[in-house]
């Protein structure tokens, strides 16, 4: 019964918390309005999400989160070196068409978000058949290095988590 009213309890809890944080109040009116929105928004958007994600390996998900955080910090320094470095280093950006093994839609979405969130890389396009991902890299010295790194650091764990 509760799953019919609150299909994604964590999403609802997150929405309520964000509502209260953005309004900077714990007044009863805002708690009630936030609760109403936290219940209504997932119900209204449920038809837009036909496949429910299941995390098969939560431990791997936590490890991946740590990897992404550390890579993001490191990439900030790498991007600063490229931007502040010589002009020849700034002209080293390019596109990679990365072949994909991952097929789960939630995993693919997460991979695209990770690549876009890490400074120096941006996910540009996913092939219609989901066989490759077009990525822009700010400092592209070795295409195969990037493909191998993305596959081992992000795609492999996402396959463990979602497939």
Question: Would you give an account of this structure?
Answer:
The structure is a single chain. With 163 residues, this protein is mostly helical. Helices cover 62% and strands 11% of the residues. It contains seven helices and three strands; from the N terminus they run H-H-H-H-H-E-H-E-E-H. It has helices at residues 2-5, 9-23, 28-45, 58-84, 87-90, 105-117, 143-162; strands spanning 94-99, 121-126, 132-137. A three-stranded antiparallel sheet has the order 1-3-2. A hairpin with a 5-residue loop joins strand 2 and strand 3 (132-137). Helix 2 packs across helix 3 (28-45) and helix 4 packs antiparallel against helix 7. It is globular, with a radius of gyration of 20 Å. The two termini are 28 Å apart.
The number of E-state strands comes to 3
Unreliable parts: none
Number of helices: 7
| Strand percentage | 5-15%
User: What is the rounded Rg?
Assistant: 20 Å
Task: Please state the oligomeric state of the protein chains shown.
Answer: single chain
Largest sheet: 3 strands, antiparallel
Give helix % range: 55-70%
Order of helices and strands: HHHHHEHEEH
Question: Rough shape?
Answer: globular
What is the average of the pLDDT values? 91
Spatial order of strands in the largest sheet:
1-3-2
Distance between the termini: 28 Å
In terms of structural class, how would the helical and strand content be classed? mainly alpha
Protein name: Na+/H+ antiporter subunit E
Keywords: Cell membrane, Membrane, Transmembrane, Transmembrane helix
Family: Belongs to the CPA3 antiporters (TC 2.A.63) subunit E family.
Subcellular location: Cell membrane
